[in-house]
Amino acid sequence: MDTLWCLILLQVVSASYASLDGDVNPVLKEGSLNVMDILKQKSLGHDLYGRKRNCHSESAVLELQNTVEDLKGRLDTAEKFLWAENGNGRRTRRSSGQDLPTSGCTPGAVGCPDAYTPYFMGQCFLCPPGPAGAQGPPGSEGERGRDGRDGRDGDRGPKGDNGDCESASVASNNQQSFTGSSPTSNNTGVIYVRWGRSECPVTSELVYSGVAGGEHYSHKGGASNYLCLPQEPIYDEPEATAHSDRGYLYGSEYQTNAYPPYAHLHDSEVPCAVCKAAQRSSYIMVPARNACPGSEWTLEYFGHLMSAYHNHRKTEFVCMDRNAEAIPRTVENANGALFYPVEGRCSSSGGIPCGPYVNGYELTCVFVLCNVVVLPININTKL
Length: 383
Prior knowledge:
This is Putative short-chain collagen C4-like. Strands 1, 2, 3, 4, 5, 6, 7, 8, 9, 10 and 11 form an eleven-stranded mixed beta sheet that branches. Helix content is about 20%, strand content about 20%. It starts with a helix and ends in a 13-residue tail after the last strand. Helix 1 (about 1-20) packs antiparallel against helix 2 (about 25-45), helix 1 packs parallel to helix 3 (about 60-95) and helix 2 packs antiparallel against helix 3 (about 60-95). The protein has two domains: about 1-100, no CATH class; about 170-230 and about 250-370, Noncollagenous (NC1) domain of collagen IV (Beta Complex), CATH 2.170.240. By secondary structure, it is an alpha+beta fold.
């Protein structure tokens, strides 16, 4: 039993010694090792000098008790020393911020080293964000987005220079612009009347065909120009009875029995056609010529000058097509607005110069278009 008691004491002391951490004072640690040597020797029945002793002897038991008491005292001292050392070290580290996480913290913020609060739970929170990290690798390409809306219209550009056809009658505010329906999508161009025919040349488009009309040749008033009347008029609140306080508009006839090129048309009504030359900038009727004035022009048609009779009321000069036609079944001699061939009157004393002009010769005419093409302008396109 004594031997068993010795072994139990040895085990208790060994366990107590093992509980000491590595921060114990080296002197105390060395003393503890000496005590352990003594206990081992006592448990094996030897004294400090290596002589065998009996663990059952009373002296041995007393010596062992004294040794244990001494060892307990040393252990108590070591424990107090360790507690003191650990407490001072932690206070020192805490005051310097070594025990608190500082990543991403700014001193003085809640949860940071200089403002240790009960809200600190092992990591910094309620602190300012840390510095931005390094840029990551580029991501994969996304899907193609939808097309955006059309941009706003740009400012109108400056006015361009005049073209090569400055001498021509340019289609402008004093010329009718074609805005009706058309076989083409382009509404730019010039409008003119082809007298004596109901169709247009191949270089132009037919706007409408009709019959020539004007004021009666014997009337003093009224209008002086010829009109190309459409075949189907549209009225707006007309009165059924005739009135004397009106201007009058009559049909027209050829008065050409004395001029062979048109003699077969005498007393017949005169057809006409309103034509559109697309993408052309200007046109001109050239009297006393039946050919183009230059390479920059395109011939539409040619013929002879005609107007009212010299002793009737004034009208206007028009270019009657050389291949003029008659409106069928209209040979009635109803008069109205009349078309007579025009001949020149020259004089050596002034007026039309004789030499190039011959007195009494019927005058020709030609209707031409400028070759300069006018491109359509999209108002939504920036120039």
